[in-house]
Amino acid sequence: DPTVNYLLLSNETSQTEPLLAYNPIRREYLLAWQSARGEDIYEYDVYAMRLDGLLAPKPPEEIALSDSPRNQTTGALAFNPASQQYHFLFGLDDETNAFDSPEYYLQRVFWPGLLLGHEVVLNSAKDDQSDPAAAYNSRDQEMLVVWSDLREGTATLFLQRYDRDGLPLAENYHVTSESEGQIHPAVAYSNLDNQYLVVWEASDHKSIQGQFLSARGSRIRNPFTIASSQSGTLFNPAVAYISSPVDNSYMVVYELDAGSDRTLYAKRVFPDGRLSTSLPVRLGGFCHNPQLAY
């Protein structure tokens, strides 16, 4: 029932920036988030918990995903069905300058909640990089990571392919040829078409945009508008692929701020670029930072 929501965690610390990935083999989810360190709402640790198909918690609860003393922030979460591992991207703040972009790391998590090996650095924070998103290519056993990057003065999206162990494949480059501001990306992979859909928020908050990419990261057709608004502002898109030959499409969820509250809307995107009508997911209240998994 989309009108019903309930509390997953009862501790009193601030819990923000959730990430969600689905394990179709075990029919369960992994939920990751960042939790404030006691009373300090500016210092966080990252945790995860398993949820069954009905979203009930499974043991072990509150899995610590890093033991670093540095401030930790969630980044992205993707599942590899071949190895039954989750790939968790998270940020660690620069110890010498907390205002610099964090360094991003990869931590592999086996499905029962066991951390595999040590965290692997994905970038050295040389550029102002933020809002990473990731999807796992189950055919080629590699991961696509996209992020918003200020290296050229304006926020634009870059992508990087990684192998299953977190080693980079080729160089990173622009997701789209458009030069307008691009922030808060999300990405989903289609195992049927062997391609990705990247979605993002325009920096003027007036539209949600999309770009199809091949398995190797090359552009398929031109970027396109998924949703737009002249009277309100649009934020924080999320995307998931509906992995069914009968219903081959992506679901995109985003926030619409009309001034008094924020409403969540959903729209389906088909591989040929067709769009469904937007439908409200949740009305009223203050809905923020939706996550989506299928």
Any overview of this molecule?
This protein has 294 residues and is mainly beta. It has strands at 15-23, 28-37, 40-52, 57-64, 72-80, 85-92, 103-110, 114-121, 129-137, 142-149, 156-163, 168-174, 182-190, 195-202, 207-214, 219-228, 233-242, 249-257, 262-269, 279-282. A hairpin with a 4-residue loop joins β18 (249-257) and β19 (262-269). The model has no long low-confidence stretch (mean pLDDT 88). It has no helices and 20 strands. It has a four-stranded antiparallel β-sheet with strand order 1-2-3-4, with no helix packed on it. A four-stranded antiparallel β-sheet has the order 5-6-7-8, with no helix packed on it.
Mean pLDDT: 88
Low-confidence stretches: none
Distance between the termini: 15 Å
Number of E-state strands: 20
Order of helices and strands: EEEEEEEEEEEEEEEEEEEE
Helix/strand-derived category reads mainly beta
Which term fits the overall shape?
A: globular
Largest sheet: 4 strands, antiparallel
How big a fraction of the residues is strand? over 45%
Question: Considering DSSP H and I runs of 4 or more, what fraction of the residues is helical?
Answer: under 10%
Number of helices: 0
The gyration radius over C-alpha positions equals 18 Å
- Read across the widest sheet, the strand sequence of neighbours is 1-2-3-4
